[in-house]
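Structure tokens please, single chain.
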Amino acid sequence: MKHGPAAIEVNEVGPRDGLQIEPVFVPTDEKVRFVDALSACGFARIEVTSFTSPRAIPALADAQEVMARITRVPGVVYTALIPNVRGLERALEVGIDELNLVMSASETHNRANLRMTREQSLAQLLAVIERGAQAGKPSNVSLSTAFGCPFEGEVDAAQVLRLVQAVARAGAAGVTLCDTTGMAYPTQVARLCERVRQAHPELGLTLHTHNTRGMALANAAAAWQTGVTRYDAAVGGLGGCPYAPGASGNVNTEELVHMFESMGVATGVSLDRVLQVVSALPAVVGRTPVSPLLAAGPRERRHAAPAWLAEHFAPG
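Here you go.
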């Protein structure tokens, strides 16, 4: 078995990728408290919100107010989804540390999700990278459907690598390979991560997984074995994809942290604090997210032995 790095970074995406798909609007005060609670957990990055048009994503219409009001913790990078130059201008007004730009590796998914062809999205994305660099803000590009498309099926790895090369040449600081609809499997993840790392060792490489088919943790472990050190996750498994029937949310942050810490891989994240955030989620989103780890507890949790054992096995 290959051994990956001794430490990784966990990026919490629940406030944006999670809340944007919730059917009930989460009040601004609740969003701010949510992000502030996450800031105390030790994450490398927190994706706070999206500066997409409020008409397109009404759930995050309060993006500027949320970003302006959160309490920033030194060492945490606060990011947001930036769809275009106008969105970047709005984000710069309230102080953003890093830009997260999104497009799909699949043509059909890109048209369905962004209402543009891939080439149109890429041109817009490159313009945002350039404008962000002028403002002194690094960009990370998230490539959706990098491991499979619900419309087209398999996605050619060469197409993914082409897009990675284009954003790397434009000056992107990092790239995220997204298993948007939970179609990835471990050996596939390992192959693509290895190819991206070999072609662009200067890029920060992040893996973004969904647990739609129960392989999110296995895929994260496979990426780790190739040397990947950055992972997206959402507390309580928040999130999902409107273009993938039956899709579940992102990999649960608490489960990702628990897995890596159990393997002896440092995450810098307090699992106890994360579980406190997860336990408070019903009050935030109005429903109870599925979190097996919250129900069962970490593997170190111990339970009292049945009372009858002492009597049954008493000496004499």
